[in-house]
Amino acid sequence: MIAFNDIHPKAKVHVLVIPKKHIQSLADAEDEDQELLGMVMLTVKKVAEEQRIASSGYRTIINTRTHGGQEVDHLHVHILGGEAIGPMVSK
After folding, report:
1. Residue 14 is a catalytic residue
2. Is 32 exposed, middle or buried (0-12, 13-18, 19+ CB in 10 A)?
3. In sequence order, what are the residues at sequence separation of 6 or more whose Cβ sits closer than 8 angstroms to the Cβ of residue 81?
């Protein structure tokens, strides 16, 4: 697992958590990836604690495929926080 700051941050804190195993998107995960996916979520929690945003709250986003806004063909989780993120905006 690796985590690093997004190069185009959308919030004061914007970190990506990425499993080293290649899974193209969440839609491509298999039953055998169950343990890894759990580890991804626990890593998200740990990173939020390390970034000192766990107690105030944060948003997690997994973009999946084209209509879901996925731009990189490797499963990853966005962690956004450090400020009030606000509601999702509809068109």
Report:
1. no
2. exposed
3. 11, 12, 13, 48, 51, 53, 56, 57, 58, 59
pLDDT in tens, 11-59: 999 999 999 999 999 999 999 999 999 999 999 999 999 999 999 999 9
Tell me whether strands 58-61 and 2-5 are parallel, antiparallel or unpaired. Answer: unpaired
Euclidean distance between CA atoms 12 and 70, whole angstroms: 21
Residue among 8, 14, 67, 76 flagged as catalytic: 76
* Partners of 79 in the β-ladder: 15, 60
Q: In this predicted model, what pLDDT tens digit does every residue of 74-89 receive, in sequence order?
A: 999 999 999 999 888 7
Q: How far is CA 26 from the centre of its chain?
A: 11
Cβ-contact 59, 85 below 8 angstroms: yes
pLDDT value, residue 90 = 74
